[in-house]
């Protein structure tokens, strides 16, 4: 069912986004990567995915904070492939600070990339999906779409917004063969998170093991990181025929975090 379809995954040059792109490529979909990376790295990624899975793989460096660049990226994809059959909104950034110290420019950037970018990609991609009477929109949100943590006002606000956007668009397109869902991971041990562990240990006077257990995984009852593979598998399932009746949902993959 997925073979030959086209998937755009924003924020997919590393971590969760790259894992999702690879998982879809394994099922024979064409892949459009997006994210910040140098030309050599993106060329290698694109060539490796194409070679490993025998699919078309492209890279688009659109800045997800800029609506004009998002529009141009979608138009390029439509011109080449005819449609973005599966849209995965994954791009995101983070900043942590008490709200009275939170820089306004950081708030604006996080809302632009973590929330508004999804609005712009969906708005631009829906027309072709409706014409084909089939589409899958998967928003990678966070457990913070369902619960809050201190010092993350912009991120939590944006992810709660993604949850609302997901439900609203799902209702609007329910009769067009298009589903819209959000995946809400807990902490995932991505390269970005791994790099934060030594610095956090130093700052808090803790061992790295203590940082993992008592800081990062404190809210996850399983005391296990969610894996990239688990998130990617959920994304692929949501694009399958078996998931055709799953829409408008906000699905946690969080080791029990939001069960509290």
In terms of topology, how is this protein built?
Elements: E1 6-9, H1 15-26, E2 30-34, H2 39-53, E3 57-60, H3 67-81, E4 86-89, H4 104-132, E5 135-140, H5 153-172, E6 178-185, H6 191-204, H7 208-216, H8 228-238, E7 250-253
Parallel strand pairs: 1-2, 1-4, 2-3, 4-5, 5-6, 6-7
Helix pairs in contact: 1-8, 3-4, 4-5, 6-7
What's a concise summary of this model?
With 260 residues, this protein is of the alpha/beta class.
What does this structure look like?
This protein has 260 residues and is of the alpha/beta class. It has two domains: 6-188 and 226-259, 3-Layer(aba) Sandwich (Rossmann fold), CATH 3.40.50; 189-225, no CATH class. It is 48% helix and 13% strand. The protein is built from eight helices and seven strands. It is globular and about 55 Å long. The relative contact order is 0.14.
Q: How would you describe this structure in keywords?
A:
260 residues; alpha/beta; Rossmann fold; 2 domains; seven-stranded parallel beta sheet; 8 helices; 7 strands; globular
Quickly name the level 1 CATH class of the largest domain: Alpha Beta
Cα-to-Cα separation, first versus last residue = 38 Å
Helix content: 40-55%
CATH superfamily of the largest domain: NAD(P)-binding Rossmann-like Domain
DSSP E strands, number: 7
What is the structural class? Answer: alpha/beta
By CATH, the architecture of the largest domain is named 3-Layer(aba) Sandwich
- Unreliable stretches covering 5 or more consecutive residues: none
């Amino acid at each position: 069912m997925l073979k030959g379809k086209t998937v755009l995954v924003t924020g997919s040059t590393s971590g969760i986004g790259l894992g999702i792109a690879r998982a879809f490529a394994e099922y024979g979909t064409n892949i459009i990567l997006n994210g910040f990376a140098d030309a050599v790295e993106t060329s290698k990624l694109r060539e490796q995915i194409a070679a490993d899975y025998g699919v078309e793989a492209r890279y688009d460096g659109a800045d997800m904070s800029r609506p004009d660049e998002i529009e141009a990226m979608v138009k390029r994809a439509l011109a080449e492939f005819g449609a973005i059959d599966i849209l995965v909104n994954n791009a995101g950034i983070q900043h942590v600070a008490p709200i009275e110290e939170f820089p306004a420019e950081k708030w604006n950037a996080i809302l632009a990339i973590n929330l508004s970018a999804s609005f712009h990609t969906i708005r631009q991609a829906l027309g072709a999906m409706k014409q084909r009477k089939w589409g899958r929109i998967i928003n990678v949100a966070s457990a913070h779409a369902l619960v809050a943590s201190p010092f993350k006002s912009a991120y939590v606000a944006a992810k709660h917004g993604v949850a609302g956007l997901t439900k609203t668009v799902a209702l609007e397109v329910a009769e067009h063969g298009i589903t819209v869902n959000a995946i809400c991971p807990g902490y995932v041990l991505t390269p970005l998170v791994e790099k934060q562990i030594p610095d956090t240990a130093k700052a808090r006077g803790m061992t790295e093991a203590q940082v993992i257990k008592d800081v990062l995984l404190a809210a996850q009852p399983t005391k296990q990181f969610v894996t990239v593979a688990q998130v990617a598998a959920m994304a692929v399932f949501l694009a399958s025929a078996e998931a055709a009746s799953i829409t408008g949902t906000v699905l946690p993959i969080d080791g029990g975090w939001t069960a509290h």
